[in-house]
C-alpha cells in the first residue's frame, strides 16, 4: 500500500520544489478547522503557497495516484458563515503569501490580484488612483478577494454595484498541467476538460434559468446562465464564481474597477421600532440611494451596552434607555447639487415617516466610515449575548423581492416564535436581504437548527426568493438539489465532473458526484460552551467573526498576526487551540502534541490586550494564557527565564532600595541577566532616587495633604529604569499648578499574572491596600504608565479585586478642564510634536489620543496623534531574543513611517519609548515632559 499520509505528501511536495510552508502543527490545524460558522472539521495538513507556481506544483503532486484520496480546499480570510472552507485533507492558505496586487490599469478599469489579497488592502492601494473594487462587505478588513469570488460575496451597495460576480472580468486557475487563464486561448491539454464542462453547462442551462428567480442578489455557483451566453461561446471561468473551491484552485483574479464617487453622504435615522424602520425602506428607495441598511433594537441595545454608540452623534443616541432601530441611507454622486437635492427630499420624507425619532447627516468621509463601522461592530456583538444560547448565522442571508420582504419577515418570525427563539436582525433592505440570527445553544439545539433551516428554506420558495443571497452556501449546499431541480442539478454535476472528476476539491459542498452532499447536521459542530465559570469560557465563545485578522498596520489588534499572517498567531487561532486543549483537560487527558504547539503560539502573543477590548466578544487571550500557564506549570517546571523574571518582580522593592549600590555594576548585571533570560537591549542604567519631597510613603498618607496634591503611581519597571519619565511626569504636573507626589512603589504583579503564577494574588492584595490608603487622602490617583493603569482597570476586576479609580494623566487633566480649570498658555514653535499612545491604552481607553489633544489645545499647543498599532516591544516581548524578528517588523510596519525627522516624538508608554530609541535612534519623551519644557522656556 502506498503512503498517503501528511508526512509522505510533505516529502513529495518538497522534492517537487514547493517553496511555501507545509505544516502539521496542531494549533494551526485547529485554527483552520473553524470559520464564522457553527462547524468544525480538522484538516490533515496546511500549506501556504508562495505564488501561482507553487499552486501548480501542489496540484501536480496531489494528482499522483498515491494521493488521490486526499481532499484539497482553498482558504482565504476564513470569514465564511457556513463552513465553506472547512475540510479534512489539505487546506491551502492563500492569505499568508498570495496577497499581492499584481497589476492594474485605472484608466481601463481593471486590476489583477492574487486570491489572498484583502479587500480593504486592495481598495486602499487603489484609492489614490480614484478607483475601487465595488463589493463592500462588513468583513472588508479581513475577507480576501479569493474568498469573495468563492462565495460570490455581496454587501452594502449591491443594488447599484452588484455582487462580486458582477465585478469580475477574468480568472486564472492552477491545474496539474499548468495554469489556465481566461484571458488567453486555452492550451491543448485543457480542451477536453472545457468541452465536457460546456456540454454539461449547456445541457442544464434551461432548467437552471427556469429554477432561478431574477433578483438583484442573483443565484450563483456554477452559473450555467452566464457561462453559456445566448450568442454562443463558453465563458468557463464564470462557473467558478460562487463555486466555493469545489472546481479547483484560483491563482489570479481580474477585478473590474469603478470610479470613486466625488461626493458621498450618509443619512442615519433612528426609529422607535424595527417595524417602522423596515417600513421606511421602500419609500426611501425612490430617492435612488446607493444603499439602505437596517439594524434592529436588539443589535442597537448590544452596541449601546458595549459603548459603541458613544461614537454616534448625540442626536442619534437613545435617551432614557429607549431602544432605537437604525436605518443607514448612503448617497453617492458626482454632482453636488443633484446629491443635495435628493438628500433634502429624502430627509424631509424621513421626518414625515411614522416612528422617526432622530436623523443625522454625515458629509465628512471619516465620519461616514465611523458610522458604517458602528453598524459593522454592532453585528459582531451578537456573539457576545450572555447565556448559553447566542445568535447564530445559519439562515441569515435569504433574499426575497423587496416588496415581499414584510410578509416573508412575518412568516420567518413566526417560525422563530414557534421554536421560542430570540434573534437579532440587520441587513440590506433595499435588495430584500435581511440577516436574521436566531439564538441557539449549538451544544443542545441541533435539531432546532435543522428544523428552522428547513422551514426558512421553504419560506424563501414561497416568497419567490433565494436561500443563499450573500454568504454562499457551504454546508447549506445540502438544499441545492431540491431547490434547483434534478435536471439543472445534473448539469451542475457534469460541470463538477469535468473539472474535478475525483471529487476531491472541497468535498461535501454544493455538488456531489457519486453520493449526495452531507446534510447540515452531518458535519461536526464546534463546541459552543464551556462549563459554567470556566477560565477559558471566552475561548468557547469565539465565533470566528475574525475581526482580529485585520491586516491594517494602524489597527492595534492583533500584532502577532499582522507580523506573521499566520492564523495560529491570532486571537481566533489561539482561542481555537485553547478550546481544543481545554476539552481534553476536562476529560482528564493531556494532549501532549497540542499542548506543545499551543505553548509555542501563546509564547508569541505580545500580551497587548487589544483583543480584550477590540474583539466583539472580548476573547482575552492574555487572561486565558495565564490560566493555561497555571495549569501547565502546576505539572512541570517553569523555564529559568520565567523564574528569574518572576523573582525580579517580587523583589523589585528590594532592588529599588539597593539601587545606589547596584548602579555602578548594573551594565555587567544587565549582560548576565540578558544571557540567563535570553533577552537583549535591557535598560542600560538604573533610575536615580527621587528627592524626598517628591515621594510619598505610608506615613505621609496618614497626614493631611496640601491642596492640589495628586498622587502618581508607578509600575516596577518605571521605578527601576525610567527615571526620565518619573521626572517629566512630576515636572509637567507642577508646571500646571499641581503638587505631585510619587507613591512608594509596590509591584502590581503583571509578570506573575501574565505567567499564571499564583503569587500574583499576594502582590495584588498588597497593592490594593496601598492604593486604598492613598485614595483615602482624597487626592486623585494618576498612573504613570498606561500598561499599569490598564492592568488595574481590566485585569484586577477579572481577578475579583476592586480598586479605587486610577486615572491616566490625560484623563485627569481633561476632567480638570471640564470642571473649569484653566491652564497656562504655552508658546510653542517648530513642527507639531507627534504623540503616540500605548496600544493597550488606545484600545482600552479609546479617548486617549483625543484627551491628549484637548489638554495640549488648552495649553495653546498643537500636536499630532497618528493612529498606530503595537510598537513591537510590549513589556519584555521585544527584549526576548527569539522575538526580535516580529518585534522589529511591527515597529517598521506601524511606527517607523510616522516618526518624522525634526518633529519631537512623545510616547505615553515606557515600552514604546524604549522601542523608539532602540530601533529609530530617536529619543521619545513622556508628554508631561514637553509641558514641563514649554513652561520653563
Automatic annotation (TrEMBL):
- PROSITE patterns in the cross-refs: 4FE4S_FER_1, 4FE4S_FER_2, FAD_PCMH
Q: What is a biological process (GO) this protein takes part in?
A: lactate catabolic process
Positions of the FAD-binding PCMH-type domain: 39-260
InterPro entries to which the protein is assigned, alphabetical: 4Fe4S_Fe-S-bd (IPR017896), 4Fe4S_Fe_S_CS (IPR017900), FAD-bd_oxidored_4_C (IPR004113), FAD-bd_PCMH (IPR016166), FAD-bd_PCMH-like_sf (IPR036318), FAD-bd_PCMH_sub2 (IPR016169), FAD-linked_Oxase-like_C (IPR016164), Helical_ferredxn (IPR009051)
State the UniProt keywords alphabetically.
FAD, Flavoprotein, Iron, Iron-sulfur, Metal-binding, Oxidoreductase
- Where does the record place the 4Fe-4S ferredoxin-type domain? 596-627
GO molecular function terms listed in the Swiss-Prot or TrEMBL record: D-lactate dehydrogenase (cytochrome) activity; D-lactate dehydrogenase (NAD+) activity; FAD binding; iron-sulfur cluster binding; metal ion binding
Co-factor(s): FAD
Q: What is this protein called?
A: FAD/FMN-containing dehydrogenase
This protein's species is Rhodovulum kholense
